Amino acid sequence: MSLRRSAALILPLTLLAAPVFAQTGVKEDSVVLQPDKVTDDAPVVETVSEANLPSWSEANATELLSFIEKVGSEGLFLQDYNPDGLAQAILAKNQIQLDKVATDSFLLLATHLRDGRTPNAARKQWFMTDSDAQTTPLIPLLTSALTSNSVSRSLAGLDPAHPNFAVLKAALKSAKSPADANAIRVNMERWRWMPRDLGDRYVVSNVPEYLTRVVHGGTIIATHKAVVGKPATPTPQLNPMATGIIVNPTWTLPKSIIAEGIGATIARSPATARAQGYIWTGSGKNLSVVQQPGANNALGVMKMEMLNPHAIYLHDTPSKGAFASAARAFSHGCIRTERALHFSGLMAVYFAGKSPEEFGEAIASGKTTKFSFDNPFPVYVAYWTVVPNAAGNGIAKLADIYGRDAPVVTSFAKPGRAAAVLISPNPPEVVPTAPMTTTQVNKPGNGGIY
């Protein structure tokens, strides 16, 4: 977008800024709490003939061992990757043994670098989808590494591409205590649970930071304070595609919120309910209530459309006072967005191709208007408790408002996820769903700047 067009956006937003209403206790759609995913994905099993791997040279195996010996810098744990067995296989000069041990160590390490070490059971309310298994399959990666003698480079290339990961990795080297080191490892893990490359344009809300950022062309173009779910209705982690921005939205009340009060108001004083913008059909258990656009609407002037089974989205609120708090975990799970006119204007202009004038007219009309995005983009609702600090020279630790760090730290003392791909002489009739022993299968062991 040109500077002229960016500047033109300011005028409509200034003129049409809605008055600040000091409402309290505004409720929006409640999060639909989903059960955690506790079972890890079953490993893919390939036969030796299917994999068609070249043999390990002594030089490639030694390079793998050197990488494993320094794997602590990746936030991972040396003994997970059988360094003693690999060293013995190199010294034994037994090609069959070397191929087996080195391949197993490489595949397990590559799995943890690409997908994270943490089992699903320790990833509380984590529902992000990660396409790295499709974009970076491990057998072609291993084949290329052996063919081009680039084992270390291939493994290092699995690190998340985002600069914040590099900041954490650098900070791990100077961690002042085991607790500090584990806090950093937890967040390095969370970056690995996400797509390696977040994309060229996206919105990211970091729940413990109470901030939402808009990224366009790889550059942050806006940062907004956010109100997130309170501990009783926590905001889950997910990455739905945003398809459009709705200005002057209506609000369809969930049954739970109807039961909390507005249902009684409708029965007792329908005129009062109408004055607050509510219209309804039915009665009793069949009562359906919709709040019309207006100053009192619980969604304020905008709602970002991002369909997901958790009923989570970004929206405005008439309860502006909540943004003045340092800790802002007040919502029913959705993410309330400060300076909503500015946010929705950016969405309409940058992502829906509308002019500032078109956006301003839609706001001024008071009518519900949807601006569909030319190309849907992801919204990352993330949970990082260690982030780059404001000075840009280190890290800052944030409050773990939902207690989600501890399960990950606990998992560090237990076996991690199994390798995503297992090499077997013959594929088993049933694909395993848990780490397998060497007698069962040919395998030893088992997301500053945003």
From TrEMBL:
Transferase recorded as keyword: yes
UniProt KW keywords: Cell shape, Cell wall biogenesis/degradation, Peptidoglycan synthesis, Signal, Transferase
One Pfam family linked to the record: YkuD
Listed pathway(s): Cell wall biogenesis; peptidoglycan biosynthesis
Classification via Gene3D superfamilies: L,D-transpeptidase catalytic domain-like
Annotated ranges, domain L,D-TPase catalytic: 201-359
InterPro entries: LD-transpeptidase_YkuD-like (IPR052905), LD_TPept_cat_dom (IPR005490), LD_TPept_scaffold_dom (IPR045380), Transpep_catalytic_dom (IPR038063)
PROSITE patterns named in the record: LD_TPASE
Active site: H315, C334
Recorded superkingdom: Bacteria
Family: Belongs to the YkuD family.
PANTHER family per record: BLR7131 PROTEIN (PTHR41533:SF2), L,D-TRANSPEPTIDASE HI_1667-RELATED (PTHR41533)
Protein's name in the database: L,D-TPase catalytic domain-containing protein
